[in-house]
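Quarterly update from the structural biology core.
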Amino acid sequence: MSIALRLALHLPRDAATVPMARRLLDQALGTLGVEPGCRDDIGLILTEACANVIEHALETDDYEISIDISDVRCVIHVVNDGSVIDPKRLILATELTDRELAAMDLAVLDEHGRGLHIIRALADELYLTPAMSGGLVLQAVTTLRWTTDAEIWQRH
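Predicted structure, tokenized:
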């Protein structure tokens, strides 16, 4: 047996939308039976991705979130139509190995860009690509961990 759930939000670029989106995601994950620690990690990924849009995508008034949940993983897409961030920052955030990332002293980074490192540390996969209309698409993939109450999703 498998599940599929998709959440899609088109939101104004306003800080008040971040906790609302996180609560919606947490409620969905909790209802399905995802472990609390896993829900916390995924919620932080979404929070940091949205915060990046709020702070850096100044050329746009809104942004989009889509979240696809299956019996195996959660895939978060956050899309904005603002300007693309510095390509060097994209490489730093996505191409470091886990060992290199763990060895980094994040204090040496400026305040901006730490969110991408947090996402990278929590997600199994992170992709940052230019959006078709300009701006940026962030995709974070996380393997789900289930509570014992959710065993039905794990029966194949």
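The beta strands are 4-12, 62-70, 73-80, 125-130, 136-143.
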